[in-house]
Amino acid sequence: MLFFRGLPVITLALSKGRIYDQTAPLLDAAGVTARDDPATSRKLILATTRPDVRLIIVRAADVPTYVQYGAADLGVAGKDTLDEHGGQGLYQPIDLQIARCRLVVAVPEGFDYQRAVRQGARLRVATKYARTAREHFAAKGVHVDLIKLYGSMELAPLTGLADAIVDLVDTGNTLRANRLKAVEEIAPVSARLIVNQAALRVKRAAIQPLLDAFARAVS
Ligand code: AMP
Fold first, then answer.
1. Residue 98 near ligand 1, beta carbon < 6 Å
2. What residue spans define the domains of the chain?
3. CATH superfamily of 101-188
4. 106-154: per-residue pLDDT in tens?
5. pTM for this predicted structure
């Protein structure tokens, strides 16, 4: 365990972009401000105005893994990412109500999805969210072949790679620009604060005030 002048150091894992930008004001309210901006700095470990709190910058899908193994005590991750990870070893105390969007099934504008489902068609579905998609379609009894992608899912139906996609939608602009439509909502998504369960037991005195500050900043 790392210490600063007798205090355990708390490590918080964040991803660049939407999550970082929307978490920073909540951190400010908790008295924690990064000393570098991850948008311009190449540092992966950022010191903050609190010498006992540091931030690490990781890929969004890696945040739960860092927290699960205790390399970070806390993290902020989308519910989409957490469901895909499975959430083992993680305590999810607070819905931060940021980075809100919806996880949906989308198809080309001219495709009759409901009819295809009624007819029992086997659909090819491209997604980054293989686990969540598999559970969703299995629960509905829809036959699918899943194709794992890492980005730009919207391209898959336009190039014949897939009939449908499972992806996040916020304004709907990306779907519209690519002549796709959402046909089913799988889940609403927002970012959650996650905590390593062992860290919470061992460093409770240090972590609890931060959790309280986050809770106050959100409500
Ligand atoms: P929009 O055009 O506003 O519907 O945004 C859709 C695009 O932004 C898709 O490529 C999504 O994967 C991505 N997106 C939307 N909301 C989020 C979010 N909360 N977290 C991560 N990616 C998102």
1. no
2. 3-99+190-218, 101-188
3. Periplasmic binding protein-like II (3.40.190.10)
4. 999 999 999 999 999 999 999 999 999 999 999 999 999 999 999 999 9
5. 0.94
